[in-house]
Amino acid sequence: MRGSYPHGAKHLMMITGTTNAAEGIEQIAAYHQRSKHQLHRYAPGPGGLDWANQPDPFRVFAQAPRVQLPLVADSLTVSYAAVSRGRYVAPRPINLDALGALFELALGISAWKSYGGARWALRCNPSSGNLHPTEGYLACGELPDLKAGVYHYASRDHQLERRALGTPAWASALPQGGLVVGLTSIHWREAWKYGMRAWRYCQHDCGHAIAAVAFAAACLGWRTRLLEEWSDADIAALLGLDREADFFMAEREEPDVLLWVGRDGAIPEPGQLVALARDAQWLGRANRLSLDQVEWRDIDRAAAAAVKPCSPTEAPGATPDLPQLRDPRLDLPAATVIRQRRSAVDFDGVTTISAAAFHTMLDALLARSRLAPWNAWAAAPRVHPALFVHRVAGLAPGLYLLARSEAALETLKHSLRREWLWQRPPDCPGHIPLYLLLPYDLREAARVVSCHQDIAADSCFALGFLAEFEAPLSAGAWVYRRLFWETGVLGQVLYLEAEAAGVRATGIGCFFDDEMHELLGLEGTAFQSLYHFTVGGAVDDPRLTTHPPYAHLGICRT
Ligand SMILES: Cc1cc2nc3c(=O)[nH]c(=O)nc-3n(C[C@H](O)[C@H](O)[C@H](O)COP(=O)(O)O)c2cc1C
Questions:
Q1: Whole-number Å distance between alpha carbons of 159 and 555
Q2: How far is Cα 496 from Cα 80, in angstroms, rounded to an integer?
Q3: Is residue 224 within 6 Å of ligand 1 at its C-beta?
Q4: With a 6 A CB cut-off, is 510 part of the ligand 1 pocket?
């Protein structure tokens, strides 16, 4: 349906939910099924790109006072190895400089690309189709050079737009030594290109952004924690997403998640902060991103079914005592790795990585609760990569499985094809739960299941993130979003580890779900493959020109 903007009643339904728990789970399972790509039929899409209505990738709030953030990420010398391996990084004081580095490295622009007459921005956080449905927010108490309140991060200009002006009372609602980063999604940005499946991509992107924030915070010596208790309605109230007049004629934003960033210690609870936000003076009007929009009812229904209620914080998953994670091959500053991260558009089909490099990347996918991004993601691991190994020195090409939790291993063995070998590869460090299922050249199979994309075959390895599905979903439809977020968090780790290993990665949202399941011999829905990934020797597209990220602000750097 065309031309109807998300109006108040519909939006209210989307942030408060409409259905009871069992119906919600049923609806989300139906969405999952209908949004699958199949070899003979892709999930419903727009059937062509409506360029006249391409959504603006940059949200701004007109009339909101703006605060320029400094561009200081370059001055951070801390190494990627230190940040990602949990070595001591002296905590920075929370001030405008630190906020500038935090937002630049998490959600800021990393480069502009141009080709012919087209020019587009890339960001430190990746996004399916580079459409960037994720928006970033800050809620803070009074800081030396920033008033208390709620701010929207305007990535194009690296500015904070003040949406709500806090009062001295905000100091008592926000524990000392930290701040809140909020993430939201504009589903239409993604649906414009991808139709029904787009809502899944919004969730992946949110997961990537969670990890991007956690890594950026770790560069500043801060830790990140997901504020699990908060309901979507509370998040919407704090960030002003439920303020209908402020979004008049503009595409609404859906609440995703709040992250507490800063020192260890107390975390903010919804009650008082939400009340203060409701009483605050709000400023600014959201810009309209498209002249017209297509309404994807399936997305609206799924989003309404998966609204998160207030829930107790999940007990942290038992993390086994893992040995120190080995350093990556390259010793680069963290800011360099984060800002140079790119998706490979093509792989050379010849690069081979060492078994040690491969094992280190897999090791980095194991949850070490002290390290970023796992300090933000306390829940027990529910996602287990099924790998197509193509070119890893000393490792037989074939199908492998990394069981990220001991508890999942037995269920995986029972759920997948009976004939799989479940052999431990020689020379794989004992604590990395990697299993060879089938030695075979699977390049063609990887290409086919990844919507015939060559990047899945010409790489060193590709994978499908196999998520526990039925059991976690029984806790509520909102858990569906978290499963996708977990795959996004894992994807962000792979993106950065690949850069630090001298290779490159690409997320793959386009894959044939059930063909992948069939290949694994998976029946039923105990597990589902939710996201694919590929890592290898990248080949750049020589037709594209790269430009510095913030030259338009008068700051020229590469
Ligand atoms: C969730 C997700 C799904 C993606 N799916 C694909 C894909 O199927 N094929 C592909 O070539 N790239 C895919 N990408 C890569 C994006 O196109 C890329 O992130 C985007 O163009 C931005 O470029 P950058 O990652 O270099 O910043 C995906 C990325 C994400 C985060």
A1: 14
A2: 9
A3: no
A4: yes
Candidate from 155, 508, 512 with most ligand 1 atoms within 8 A of CB, to mutate: 508
For ligand 1, is residue 546 a contact (CB within 6 Å)? no
Could you count the other beta carbons within 10 Å of the beta carbon of residue 507? 24
Written as six digits, the tokens of 479 are 């858990």
Q: Where are the domains of the chain?
A: 8-305, 343-536
Alpha helices by DSSP H, 198-295 = 198-219, 232-239, 270-279
Strand, coil or helix: what is 78? coil
Q: Which residues of 379-406 are buried (b: 16+ CB within 10 A; e: fewer)?
A: bbbbbbbbbbbbbbeebebbbbbbbbbe
* Phi and psi angles of residue 398, each rounded to the nearest 5 degrees, phi first: 155, -170
- Between CA 114 and CA 120, with CA 115 as vertex, the angle to 5 degrees is 35
- β-partners of residue 261 are 179, 224
* Ligand 1 and 127: CB distance under 6 A: yes
Of 437, 380, 283, 343, residue with least CA distance to 111 = 343
Atom number of ligand 1 nearest to Cα 511: 8
Cα–ligand 1 centroid distance for 133 (angstroms) = 13
**Under CATH, which number does the domain 8-305 receive?**
3.40.109.10
Task: Give the Å distance between the CA of 126 and the centre of ligand 1.
Answer: 6
Would you write out the chain's pLDDT as a tens digit for each of its 558 residues? 444 434 444 565 555 565 688 999 999 999 999 999 999 999 999 999 999 999 999 999 999 999 999 999 999 999 999 999 999 999 999 999 999 999 999 999 999 999 999 999 999 999 999 999 999 999 999 998 999 999 999 999 999 999 999 999 998 899 989 999 999 999 999 999 999 999 999 999 999 999 999 999 999 999 999 999 999 999 999 999 999 999 999 999 999 999 999 988 889 999 999 999 999 999 999 999 999 999 999 999 999 999 999 988 776 666 778 999 999 999 999 999 999 999 999 999 999 999 999 999 999 999 999 999 999 998 999 999 999 999 999 999 999 999 999 999 999 999 999 999 999 999 999 999 999 999 999 999 999 999 999 999 999 999 999 999 999 999 999 999 999 999 999 999 999 999 999 999 999 999 999 999 999 999 999 999 999 999 999 999 999 999 999 998 876 554
First-to-last C-alpha distance (Å) of the chain: 44
* Cα 548 to ligand 1 centroid, rounded to whole Å: 20
284 touches ligand 1 (CB under 6 Å): no
Is-same-fold flag (8-305; 343-536)?
Answer: yes
381 lines ligand 1 (CB under 6 A): no
Pocket perturbation via mutation, ligand 1, pick of 185, 459, 492, 506 by most ligand atoms within 8 A of CB:
506
Class level of CATH domain 343-536: alpha beta
Amino acid present at 25:
I
C-alpha dist (Å) from residue 452 to 32, 88, 288, 352: 21, 44, 36, 22
Q: Evaluate: CB of 342 within 6 angstroms of ligand 1.
A: yes
